[in-house]
Structure formats: C-alpha cells, structure tokens
Design goal:
The chain contains 7 helices and no strands. It has one domain: Lysozyme (Orthogonal Bundle), CATH 1.10.530. It is an all-alpha fold. Helix 1 runs parallel beside helix 4. Helices cover 61% and strands 0% of the residues.
Length: 144
C-alpha cells in the first residue's frame, strides 16, 4: 500500500491546531496566525537571537510558565503562545496593540511607557501584525 503525501503550505499547516487554540482561549484564529507569521514565518524550529523558540517564539521561562515542555512541538507551542496571548489581551482589556506590544517587548515595558514602547522593533511588530490582520480581513471579505 502506498501513501500519497501532499505538501501543505506552511501558512496552512497548523490550521487545525490554530482553530483548537482559538476555541480553547476564545481568541481570533487570525490573530494567532498573524503572530506566528510575524514571529517565526511558520517555522516550528525557529530560534531567535534572544533564545525564543518555535512557532510563537516562546522564551524558555515563559514556556515553563505556560506548561509547554517542548517548544518545538507545534501543538504545544501554539497552545502555550495562545494561552499567553489571551492572558495579555485580558490584562489589557482586549486592546490588541497593547497585548501585541507586551508579547514583543514584555508587559513591564508597556507599563513603564504607559502604552506601546518607543522601541522601533516593537512599533514595527505591532504595525506588521495589524497589517496581516487587515489583509486577511480584506481577503475574506473579497471571498464573500
């Protein structure tokens, strides 16, 4: 018996896990997907210069805190990243900009600056994710 394998594009490979995380944590699946795209370009083995790991680029201490034992396991990483994103959204009363800034620069920096910190990387990060979300929204509206 031969099995047929079809390559799935990276931006679709994790749709099932993303949907599961979105439902589990009551977050927009497009937001999770946009964070993954910005953080790792959907590479489950990505490691940043700072040491963040996997699809949603979790730092080792955060992985431990979120119950992720293997940051390179796509399901664990996405579920842990979504759980953290939900925590940040709740903390910032649903403010996506502040939650994304906290995800990128840390909640302490968002508190310290009373909003999105003046760091070029963080401002670019928030802008990039918002653009990805807007493009997805436009594509789904065009499809309707």
């Amino acid at each position: 018996m031969t099995a047929e394998y079809i390559a799935v594009p990276a931006n679709q490979a994790y749709d099932g896990i993303i949907a599961e995380a979105a439902a589990a944590y009551d977050i927009d699946a497009n937001l999770i997907r946009a964070v993954m795209q910005a953080e790792s370009a959907f590479n489950p083995f990505a490691v940043s210069r700072a040491g963040a790991e996997g699809l949603m680029q979790l730092m080792p201490d955060l992985s431990d805190e979120m119950g992720v034992s293997n940051s390179f396991d796509p399901r664990e990483n996405i579920m842990g990243g979504a759980r953290y994103l939900k925590r940040l959204l709740d903390y910032h009363n649903g403010n996506i900009d502040l939650a994304l800034a906290s995800y990128n620069a840390g909640p302490g920096n968002v508190e310290r600056y009373g909003g999105v910190p003046p760091f070029r990387e963080t401002r670019r990060y928030v802008k990039t994710i918002k653009q990805i979300l807007a493009e997805r929204k436009k594509r789904s509206a065009d499809a309707d």
